[in-house]
DNA sequence: CTGGGGAGGGGGCCC
DNA sequence: AGGGCCCCCTCCCCA
């Protein structure tokens, strides 16, 4: 039963990256005392190529513009191999992939998962590092290719990008929602999310509070509940030292005026 | 208005 | 690589 990662890691540096546009309003809530593990904006400086991963409109991605300078993604770092991000149109709604609201259960086709590798010395692009290496050796007399280059995989439905295909695939599930509740038809990205949802139908509450008789269907909700039994709660106001069981309550507290004069 | 429960989402880690 | 599970978080709603 005990697993190594059951050890709680409060305030660890390992924070989710809530930095996407749809979460900007949430990010505004985050106090400075809760630092975010944001990706360094210049972190890709070590990258020497920006393979393009376009999942939903893969063929569009292969229609590379003649020059990387035509890339339309402003936040990406300057590079002679500027990323040709054809998958991150701001609306993410062009074409017909939105006709089902992105909820199609069609699984991603593995053969569409092609990151692109761009030559450092010309505008040519290849779908494999070995091909690029061969090109650079034969056409530019460079015996090595930056093998350390990490592909960047872009999500077609949003602006998120990942350095591993597995992470992208996991993220894409949040668009495809392949786990469907047999009772009500609601769709979820993960099987365990579906299981948690099914508990709302069955009434199962496997997570019990050791301090009272309450039980919960969700571990996170039990954890939040346990805070109510604690005298010193997890989230503290920086001004009045009052503590709260939830971040949202601290936010409400701040918004209601305690810290407004500061 | 505040506190708390319910439901759900995302990224990361381990197997 | 994928499944399972974790932690952390948010939003909504209600007492």
TrEMBL record:
Compartments in which it is found: Nucleus
Entries under InterPro entries matching the protein: Snail/Krueppel_Znf, Znf_C2H2_sf, Znf_C2H2_type
Pfam families named among the record's database cross-references: zf-C2H2
Transmembrane parts of this sequence: none
Region (Disordered): 66-109
Record domain C2H2-type: where: 117-140, 153-176, 179-206, 207-234, 235-262
GO molecular function, one term: RNA polymerase II cis-regulatory region sequence-specific DNA binding
Gene3D superfamilies documented for this protein: Classic Zinc Finger
Keyword Repeat: yes
Regions of compositional bias (Low complexity) in chain numbering: 82-94
Keywords: DNA-binding, Metal-binding, Nucleus, Repeat, Zinc, Zinc-finger
PANTHER family for the chain: ZINC FINGER PROTEIN, ZINC FINGER PROTEIN SNAI1
Family: Belongs to the snail C2H2-type zinc-finger protein family.
Protein name in UniProt: C2H2-type domain-containing protein
